[in-house]
Design brief:
Layout: E1 2-7, H1 9-26, E2 33-38, H2 42-57, E3 62-66, E4 97-105, H3 109-121, E5 126-134, E6 146-150, E7 158-162, E8 171-175
Parallel strand pairs: 2-3, 2-4, 4-5, 5-6
Antiparallel strand pairs: 1-8, 7-8
Length: about 180
Amino acid sequence: MQKAIIMDEKAITRAITRISHEIIERNKGIENVVLIGIKTRGIPVAQRIAEKIEAIEGQKVKTGQMDITLYRDDLSQKQIDPVVNGTQIGFDITNKTVVLVDDVLYTGRTVRSALNALMDAGRPKAIQLAVLVDRGHRELPIRADYVGKNVPTSKTEIISVKLSECDVENSVSIEE
């Protein structure tokens, strides 16, 4: 059951714009920066950031996508066979600043899995993390470098991110 809408389409767009500017500023441009979206909704968030950076800088930033299914630490606890849609990084990440992008940061376990998968793909110069929503409740020492919105939640609440690339609308809501 939906409790509250915490970001509408305009708020999501503003958050993407702010994150894009922060990435450019922190890295003094985007010369050696690449974006990798974590499946599922991290991919369209990364694409939106890439489009905004291109609009600001007039230069494309390479984007890739990562499926961390086989790197999850709870895979043995799941009863179903995992469906893997593959990691698609069509460029070398060695000596690049990789910005991992996801929709929600919660326990940190997805990011840890993504870090393991990334190390199998190459040796980046640096890894940064951008998330649309940080809801707290970390179980691992992981924090985001770029956050669209910090949303304190209880462990019983669910953050539901809907993006037009995957869903019918653009919104972020809290559900119980």
